[in-house]
Amino acid sequence: MEGKFDVIVIGAGPSGSCAASLLAEKGLKVCLLEKDRFPRQKVCGDGISGQTKKLLEELKIYPEFGGLKRDIYPIKQSIMSSPDGTVMPMDANELDEKSFGFTCPRDVFDEVLLSFASKKGVLFKEGVRVKGIESIDDRLNAVYADFGGRNIRFLSSLTIIANGSGSNLAHQVRKRKINSKDIAIGMRTYFEGVDLQHRCEIHYDKHLLPCYGWLFPISDSIVNVGIAMRVDLLRRSRKSITSHFYKFISENQFVKLRLHKAKPMAAPSAHIMKLGTGAGQNYGSGFLIVGDAGSFVDPINGEGISNALLTGRIAAEVGYKAFEQDNFSKSFLKQYEDRWKEKLAARFRTAKIMQWLLQRPAFVNFNMSKMSKKSQFNLATERPDTIWERLKFFYQIMKG
Ligand SMILES: Cc1cc2nc3c(=O)[nH]c(=O)nc-3n(C[C@H](O)[C@H](O)[C@H](O)COP(=O)(O)OP(=O)(O)OC[C@H]3O[C@@H](n4cnc5c(N)ncnc54)[C@H](O)[C@@H]3O)c2cc1C
Questions:
Q1: Residue whose CA is closest, atom 29 of ligand 1?
Q2: CB of 15 closer than 6 A to ligand 1?
Q3: Is 83 in the pocket of ligand 1 (CB under 6 A)?
Q4: Mean pLDDT over residues 333-356, rounded?
Q5: pTM for the full model?
Q6: What is the per-residue pLDDT for 97?
Q7: DSSP string spanning 54-83?
């Protein structure tokens, strides 16, 4: 089981499988370590956005989903509602249909990415829980793990930490505390007996702001129902996430109507999300941190898969350069931080202001009412990044 590799990737979610495939494709000896046995469940909304779909196409992974007609459910419409009940529909007729993504249960989605990685030559080892990383010298890391109660050790020149939002490894290597404002908690389950006809619903319920609750159909009769809340606001509410979840499904005017005849298929499950507002210092001598482990979930819409793929790709590109130049130093690997910041930092910075605004029901009501009257905005593809773009965007909406 033990061994020496060029690269060890820890965690076989989208970020880990993506980074591992790209590095193996370049001819490096890559080992992907995963604590669970695949296929495994992952608490998620199962929403694969248009943005994620585009990245999957660029990475040449998208064709792998071709044979999975049964597990891929195209989204053709979307609606949003505000606390006062205003509804903003985004109709497929008015938008480019391609900009909508699809839904896919995560056990299936992650398995597809993993099998792509295996095809590229990645060695996958499951049931291996990594416990710690130690730098031996400037070209070698030791990765310590537990495999069925046995302590094992791997060696690598580069280690990519991709083990999700619960990652204690990221905390171990960068020793930085994350503020509770930069963490959200999400809860979801599946309901059977409701046909949303390829329509995603996002409900800005006043108890959940600046986050929201969702209904994402995964078939003509099953829907993924969930909520997210920021941890500091959840604590302030003095209620559990479970009680907020049941309040949402029983009291939100739209949700209770949709789920009227539906039956839950399992008890709801929760998981944390590390928001991009807390991202930073995701590199060091011989290691890079990608995806949720590095706090890359979009702070506005809670989408994490696209940034997991994006950071996985940037880490693979910078990591490969490190091999070409035989340089795994902290100063060399800082290029990773510079590159993801070029793409995401402006959005993360303005997200703080957006969150502050979205916490106010009056702001959400006002904007939703303006937006519902102005349908030419392609909200499925527009991603205003800087504060000026965002203000311009809202100004245009308000001008009506
Ligand atoms: C309730 C909820 C709803 C969400 N909905 C959406 C959505 O609809 N769309 C979207 O784009 N994003 C959504 N997200 C975010 C999305 O789930 C994540 O951003 C995405 O899974 C991140 O991928 P990742 O590869 O970084 O981490 P993960 O997918 O979490 O993968 C990490 C992997 O590492 C493994 N691992 C953990 N610890 C160890 C260890 N010590 N040793 C070895 N392996 C380990 C885990 O078993 C796991 O397989 C949601 C999140 C939540 C919580």
A1: 13
A2: yes
A3: no
A4: 93
A5: 0.94
A6: 52
A7: HHHHHTT-GGGGTT-TTT-EE--EEEEE-T
